[in-house]
Amino acid sequence: SQKIEQNSEALNIQEGKTATLTCNYTNYSPAYLQWYRQDPGRGPVFLLLIRENEKEKRKERLKVTFDTTLKQSLFHITASQPADSATYLCALVRQAGTALIFGKGTTLSVSS
Amino acid sequence: DAGVIQSPRHEVTEMGQEVTLRCKPISGHDSLFWYRQTMMRGLELLIYFNNNVPIDDSGMPEDRFSAKMPNASFSTLKIQPSEPRDSAVYFCASSFVGWSTDTQYFGPGTRLTVL
């Protein structure tokens, strides 16, 4: 069965630095991969999607890369701020119309 | 749009009691998902509906769990009888499969505590 691993449960960085979160998957390559943000007591919120034929996607201070050879996606937050502190989940889907499979998430803490 | 609506937000019940969680998806969305989130197991898919029809219920833990979607604007997840190990946050999400992104919109969740 498909497995997703996010590199660590927690990541602590200083304000202004770049946060890099890792998502590794096994078995088949997904059609696309998504990143979500979850704040305490709330549901996940979609951030970015990257398709299997895309290497990189950007949105404001966020950047996602997708390496199908390494079976890995990296999620970067540049110029991090305390407001970026949250849990970030990666999720993949094998093909459109099928369910997402979520990783357990990485909790990012940005200190000022 | 109000987003995905779930009720109740918190539920505390005793072991053996029946629990019903409710969800109203975003209008126009044709897919609905029920998830359970715990610290140990993360976010797990329980069941997935498309056009009100259950497509994948392989994540439903056992016969004590059942889900229905009688129409496009309402779904329930029922646990009968409830057990302490069912304590978790239950999320409902909806999406429009016709989009190429399948982005899911999550509700605020129901925190269930079974004593």
How do the strands and helices of this protein lay out in sequence?
The complex is a heterodimer of chains A (112) and B (115).
Chain A: E1 4-6, E2 10-14, E3 19-25, E4 32-38, E5 45-51, E6 56-59, E7 62-67, E8 72-77, E9 86-93, E10 101-102, E11 106-111
Parallel strand pairs in A: 2-11
Antiparallel strand pairs in A: 1-3, 3-8, 4-5, 4-9, 6-7, 7-8, 9-10, 9-11
Chain B: E1 5-7, E2 10-13, E3 19-24, E4 31-38, E5 42-50, E6 53-56, E7 65-71, E8 74-79, E9 88-95, E10 105-106, E11 110-114
Parallel strand pairs in B: 2-11
Antiparallel strand pairs in B: 1-3, 3-8, 4-5, 4-9, 5-6, 7-8, 9-10, 9-11
Quick structural overview:
Chain A is mainly beta. In chain A, 0% of the residues lie in helices and 54% in strands.
Describe this structure in words.
Chain A is mostly beta strands and 112 residues long. Chain A contains no helices and 11 strands. The radius of gyration of chain A is 13 Å and the shape is globular. The model of chain A has no long low-confidence stretch (mean pLDDT 90). Chain B contains no helices and 11 strands. In chain B, strands 2, 4, 5, 6, 9, 10 and 11 form a 7-stranded mixed β-sheet that branches. In chain B, strands 1-3-8-7 form a 4-stranded antiparallel β-sheet, with no helix packed on it. At the A-B interface, strand 5 and strand 10 of A face strand 5 and strand 10 of B.
